[in-house]
C-alpha cells in the first residue's frame, strides 16, 4: 500500500450530493432545477445539490434527502443512488466526488410542496422539460441523461413507475404512466398480468373512479412495503 | 442553501475506493482479498482499496485501477462502478465515502499477474471462494453481496461474462461461463442466438480447439470495441 499518511493530511476532496428529481406531466418527463446562489455558475439553473454535512447527515442518502427538503420542502420521496461522478475535471473548485441520487415524485406532490414552500421564502426550484434542458453546469447533463436512461430501462422490469403516480390511481392510469416513461404503447392484458406478478398494488376499499363516459374503475395504491423499494419482474414487460 | 463556508472549511470526509474483483475457477466465483497492512483491522483480509489521490488520479475509476495495479500487477481489467457506500457508521476513522468498483478478470490473467508480482515483493492478495468468505471488515460483506448480485442479474441480458473468459474461447466454454455465473443450465440453440444478437465476438481466423473425443470447435475472441464496455440484449437469456 502506498498510503502512509492519515486521511486528514491528504489534499481535501470536495464531497457533494446531486439529485435528479424526475416527475411526469401528462406524458412528459420533467426535471427539477434550482437556481445557484453562489459561484461557480452563480445564477445558473442546475441540479439541486450541496456539500455533505458529516456532522448532520448519517450518510450521503441523508444528505440528498436534506438537500431536497431544503430546496423543495419534500419529505422522503422515492430515492435511489444513480452513481458517483468524480475527479479533477468536473468542478472548477478542485477534485470532487458527487454522489448522485435519482428521485421520483408524483407531480401533484411536488407542486404542492413547492407552493407551500413559496409562501415562506423565495422559490429557488422549478420544473423543466427533460427533453429541452439546454446546457447545464458541471457534468449535470450527463447525470440527467444517466437518470433518464436508468428510469427507462428499469421501468421495463420493475415497479419503478408507480412512484410517479399519485397516492391512488386506476390501472389504466398506471399503464399510461408506464407507456409515457417507456415511450411505447403496452398491451393491456399482458400489462395487467405483469402488475399482478409485481404484487405491489392493493385495491382501495370501496373506491372507484368513473365519469359519465366510462365504466367506473377500481382505485389502487402502492402497498406500504413497496413505497421505498422496488419489486422486480422475472422477465420484462 | 445552507452552505456558506468554502469546502476546505468543512469537516473532512475520508474518500476511498474499494474493488470487488471477481473471477471464475471452474464453476465457482472467487473474490480477491488483500491483507490489510495498517489499522483499522490491521492483518485482516479485506477488499483491496485505498484513499483517492487527488494529485495523481484523474477520477475515482483511476484510483481503483491504481489500487488494483499496486496490489495485483493487473493493468486495465474490465471495471464498472458498483455504487457508493458512505456515512459515519462504516469506518471507525470517521465519516467516509467509498466508491466501489467491480472488476471481472479471467482466472489465468489474474494468476499470472499475482505470480509475476510475487517475484519482486511479498504477496498481499489472494483469491477466496465467494460463497465462504467469512466476515469481512467495514461493510465489505455488503459490497461483495452487491457485486455478485449485480453480476448475476446483468449476465442475464448482457455480454458481461465474456470478461471472465480468457483471450480465446469456444462457444461451449462461453456457455459454461454464463451457466456458472447464472447458476442454471442454458439451452444451446437459444444461447447461440443470443450471442449473435450481442454481436461482441469474432472468430479467431483458422484457430480451432479440439481433442480426440470432440469435434474441433471454433475459437472466438471479444471484439476490440467490447473489451471495456458491454453489449445489451433486448430481452434477457
UniProtKB/TrEMBL annotation, chains A, B:
This is NUDIX hydrolase. Keywords: Hydrolase. Pfam families: NUDIX, WHD_NrtR. One of its GO terms (molecular function) is hydrolase activity. Residues 8-164 form the Nudix hydrolase domain. It comes from the Bacteria. InterPro entries: NUDIX_hydrolase-like_dom_sf, NUDIX_hydrolase_dom, WH-like_DNA-bd_sf, WH_DNA-bd_sf, WHD_NrtR. The lineage of its organism: Bacteria, Pseudomonadati, Pseudomonadota, Betaproteobacteria, Burkholderiales. PANTHER family: ADP-RIBOSE PYROPHOSPHATASE, SLR1690 PROTEIN.
Amino acid at each position: 500500500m502506498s498510503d502512509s499518511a492519515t486521511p486528514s493530511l491528504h489534499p481535501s476532496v470536495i464531497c457533494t450530493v446531486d439529485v435528479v428529481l424526475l416527475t411526469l406531466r401528462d406524458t412528459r418527463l420533467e426535471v427539477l432545477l434550482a437556481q445557484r446562489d453562489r459561484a461557480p455558475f452563480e445564477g445558473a439553473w442546475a441540479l439541486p445539490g450541496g456539500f455533505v454535512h458529516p456532522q448532520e447527515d448519517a450518510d450521503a442518502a441523508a444528505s440528498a434527502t436534506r438537500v431536497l427538503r431544503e430546496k423543495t420542502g419534500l419529505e422522503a420521496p422515492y430515492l435511489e443512488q444513480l452513481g458517483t461522478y468524480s475527479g479533477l475535471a468536473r468542478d472548477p473548485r478542485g477534485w470532487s466526488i458527487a454522489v448522485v441520487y435519482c428521485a421520483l415524485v408524483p407531480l401533484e406532490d411536488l407542486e404542492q410542496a413547492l407552493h407551500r414552500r413559496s409562501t415562506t421564502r423565495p422559490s429557488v426550484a422549478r420544473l423543466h422539460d427533460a427533453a429541452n434542458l439546454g446546457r447545464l453546469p458541471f457534468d449535470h447533463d450527463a447525470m440527467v441523461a444517466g437518470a433518464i436512461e436508468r428510469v427507462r430501462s428499469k421501468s421495463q422490469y420493475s415497479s419503478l413507475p408507480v412512484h410517479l403516480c399519485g397516492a391512488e390511481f386506476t390501472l389504466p392510469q398506471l399503464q399510461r404512466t408506464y407507456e409515457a416513461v417507456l415511450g411505447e404503447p403496452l398491451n393491456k392484458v399482458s400489462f395487467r398480468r405483469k402488475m399482478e406478478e409485481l404484487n405491489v398494488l392493493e385495491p382501495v376499499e370501496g373506491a372507484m373512479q368513473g365519469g359519465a363516459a366510462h365504466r367506473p374503475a377500481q382505485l389502487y395504491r402502492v402497498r406500504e412495503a413497496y413505497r421505498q423499494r422496488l419489486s422486480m419482474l422475472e422477465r420484462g414487460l
